[in-house]
């Protein structure tokens, strides 16, 4: 039987950076390298996108 599984990997990276944009770039580069070094993620697991948004910890965030 052929079935489809919609999967998501979720995480929060905490790092030192000069700006939100720099932090996003650092994380994106690390994840893009990981995906390109693991072609099964695209070829067999159907990975299609990497997405992230930088933010500063705030009152609603556990620091």
Which key phrases capture this entry?
single chain, 2 helices, about 60 residues, about 0% strand, mainly alpha
Question: Can you offer a commentary on this structure?
Answer:
The protein has 63 residues and is mainly α. The protein has a domain at 18-54. It is 33% helix and 0% strand. The chain is built from two helices and no strands. It has helices at residues 20-36, 40-43. The longest helix has 17 residues, at 20-36. It is elongated, with a radius of gyration of 15 Å.
How is the secondary structure organized here?
Layout: H1 20-36, H2 40-43
Spans of at least 5 consecutive residues with low confidence: none
Strand content: under 5%
Largest sheet geometry: none
Helical/strand content category? mainly alpha
- Whole-Å distance between the termini? 46 Å
Radius of gyration: 15 Å
Alpha plus pi helix count = 2
Overall morphology: elongated
Order of helices and strands: HH
Q: Could you tell me the number of beta strands?
A: 0
Mean pLDDT level: 89
Helix content: 25-40%
